[in-house]
Specification:
This protein is of the alpha/beta class. The chain has helices spanning 18-28, 49-64, 83-96, 111-123, 134-140, 158-169, 219-230, 245-254, 279-287, 302-308, 312-322, 333-347, 560-566, 570-573; strands spanning 36-39, 68-73, 104-106, 127-130, 179-182, 197-201, 215-217, 234-238, 263-267, 350-351, 353-354, 357-362, 371-376, 386-391, 394-398, 418-421, 426-434, 440-447, 465-466, 469-470, 475-482, 509-517, 529-532, 536-540, 550-555. The chain folds into 3 domains: 32-267, HUPs (Rossmann fold, 3-Layer(aba) Sandwich); 279-349 and 479-565, Ribosomal Protein L25, Chain P; 353-467, Ribosomal Protein L25, Chain P (Beta Barrel), CATH 2.40.240. The chain contains 14 helices and 25 strands. The longest helix has 16 residues, at 49-64. Bound molecules: adenosine-5'-triphosphate (ATP) and magnesium ion.
């Protein structure tokens, strides 16, 4: 079959990788007519940026090869699964920009079929009911160097196995008293093949299947069957499952399911510096109140990134940039931020905001006078146009842009120094007023009336350009600034006796409750994104109201990755 290649984005692609090569070869060999992938989350938590990597990969492969990608809930473990998570997953995948069309599935809808297939394996003498306790199963499984030991239940007759398995389903036995195991090879060099558990007893209702079942299939048995039922061609999962692949193939082969069989392909999971990615840990952060919820803007969850203001295009760009590899690694979170900036630089309108305002009085400017200056909405995008900002005798400037005494290499406001007020005038600082603690409370200066628009008539240069707002023309806003949730690149880097929680960064959130922003920002919709000049990219938080706008800082403007990238070879960069 001819390949159909659809451009996936306007961004430069890294080109081919080992997964695309496998798919191309399969298509060339006529193994499949349509490429069908799937994203199979277990609805036991919110999706995170690691899942986003898997989502982007599976959906873009389907798009590129003209096939389709299923969204399937791998809902085989009812005790941890919830409807709330199911809804969040759909919202997140859609927000990332992907569409599963009609192809939304629940593994639990296949429970009857899976059960019938389990009976089939029993009838073939390839599965048996085992009464060992979980500890006994573990002990007899052996180690990497020693083979496992078969238990006495392995010799049960087909009739007895069938009878016991049916009674397991009928609810006759308590939780944990029996399991169904595949009868493979207790001496296998691959421990996964030493008679793995297929079903366990669990008297628990299921969020999707209700109380229809009190036995539930294990992942290793369920997953290949789910893939086979849906006609998945390429079942892409993370590297931990590499050693499970023989088992994946074994179930499909023994059940003699129709060809072509789905092929499991493993790739390296995404790990990010300064971030934890396990759902269990993310749940702990939420339940124990370290963050404000699953969508806290400091969380690596898709809901958190969305609330923070990260555009979905940036996540897709990041997934493309990191590509897929066969070896686990940790990606520098600054590469992610770099992708966020790359998208926002082109798209985010520029605005003025003063986070920690202090008053600048222009002593040679008439009281009551208002002048309007035109400033560009986005220098990267001339079509974005200009807007008018009022200029008055009293202005707000950033407290950290003022010092009573200069430091080396400090070029902003201090007595005697001249700076540019962007788009307005050059101003020379004449006086800085401080309180008892030395904190700046007011600054006074004089403009050069000849520098209207911010350019000196004689072409003299100033080293700093500051943002500003006219007092009385702004709106007060709350601005939330974020740092990494963890203080160390590797949250697990702790001395003995400590845990990853000891690496939580106590300064991950800083609130500026009395920021000043351009008045039009009060009307901005939740989720709208802006560049506040010199300060970073910001988005309107859902807590925002027109009376009290609330903004999250998405990222600062400082691109650390650009510096890091220079020191790397091109191959290490991808
Ligand atoms: P758990 O098994 O603890 O529930 P999980 O992160 O494996 O957590 P799943 O819901 O099973 O969660 O994951 C769904 C899909 O997302 C799987 O195919 C998995 O391989 C993929 N995935 C999960 N985490 C990552 C990651 N960090 N990088 C890439 N893919 C991931
Ligand atoms: Mg999993």
């Amino acid at each position: 079959m001819a390949e159909r290649s659809v451009p996936i984005s306007q961004f430069p692609s890294e080109g081919s990788d080992f997964i695309r090569e496998i798919i191309r070869a399969d298509l060339a060999a006529g193994k499949h007519r349509t490429v069908i992938t799937r994203f199979p989350p277990e609805p036991n938590g919110y999706l995170h940026i690691g899942h986003a990597k898997a989502i982007c990969l599976n959906f873009t492969l389907a798009q590129e090869f003209g096939g389709r990608c299923h969204l399937r809930y791998d809902d085989t473990n009812p005790t941890k699964e919830e409807q709330e998570y199911i809804e969040a997953i759909e919202r997140d995948v859609r927000w990332l920009g992907f569409d599963w069309g009609q192809h939304l599935y629940f593994a639990s809808d296949y429970f009857e079929q899976m059960y019938q297939w389990a009976e089939q394996l029993i009838l073939k003498g390839q599965a048996y009911v085992c009464d060992c306790t979980p500890d006994e199963v573990r002990e007899k499984r052996g180690t990497l160097t020693e083979p496992g030991i078969p238990c006495e239940h392995r010799q049960r007759s087909v009739e007895e196995n069938l009878n016991l398995f049916r009674r397991m389903r009928a609810g006759e036995f308590p939780d944990g008293s029996r399991v169904l195991r595949a009868k493979i090879d207790m001496a296998s060099g691959n421990i996964n093949m030493r008679d793995p558990v297929m079903y366990r007893i669990l008297h628990a209702p299921h969020p999707h299947a209700g109380d229809a079942w009190c036995i539930y299939p294990m992942y290793d048995y369920a997953h290949p069957l789910e893939d086979a039922i849906e006609g998945i061609t390429h079942s892409i999962c993370t590297l931990e499952f590499e050693d499970h692949r023989p088992l994946y193939d074994w179930f499909i082969d023994q059940l003699e399911l129709p060809e072509p069989h789905p092929q499991q392909i493993e790739f390296a999971r995404l790990n990010l510096t300064y971030t934890v990615m396990s759902k269990r840990r993310l749940l702990e952060l939420v339940q124990e109140g370290f963050v404000r919820g699953w969508d806290d803007p400091r969380m690596p969850t898709i809901a958190g990134l969305r609330r923070r203001g990260v555009p979905p295009e940036a996540i897709r760009l990041f997934a493309e940039r990191i590509g897929v590899a066969k070896r686990n690694s940790v990606v520098d979170v600054q590469l992610f931020e770099h992708c966020v900036r790359e998208v926002l630089n082109r798209t985010a309108p520029r605005r003025f905001a003063v986070l920690d305002p202090v008053k600048l009085v222009i002593t040679n400017y008439p009281e009551g006078q208002v002048e309007w200056f035109s400033v560009p909405n986005n220098p990267e995008d001339p079509a974005a146009g200009q807007r008018q900002l009022p200029f008055t005798r009293e202005l707000w400037v950033e407290r950290e842009d003022v010092r009573a005494y200069p430091l080396p290499k400090y070029f902003r406001l201090y007595p005697g120094n001249e700076v540019r007020l962007r788009g307005a005038y050059l101003v020379t600082c004449r006086e800085v007023l401080t309180d008892d603690t030395g904190q700046v409370v007011e600054v006074r200066g004089e403009i050069d009336p000849q520098s209207r628009g911010g350019q000196a008539p004689d072409g003299r240069r100033v080293k700093a350009t500051l943002h500003w707002l006219a007092v009385g023309h702004g709106v007060e806003a709350e601005v939330r600034l974020y740092d990494y949730l963890f203080a160390k690149p590797d949250p697990d880097d702790v001395p003995a006796g400590r845990t990853w929680r000891d690496n939580l960064n106590p300064n991950s959130l800083t609130v500026r409750p009395h920021a000043q922003v351009e008045p039009a920002l009060a009307q901005a919709a939740v989720g709208e994104r802006f560049q506040f000049e010199r300060l970073g990219y910001f988005a309107v938080d859902p807590d925002s109201t027109p009376q009290r706008p609330v903004f999250n800082r998405i990222v600062t403007l400082k691109d650390e990755w650009a510096k890091v990238a220079k020191t790397l070879t091109p191959s290490a960069r991808s």
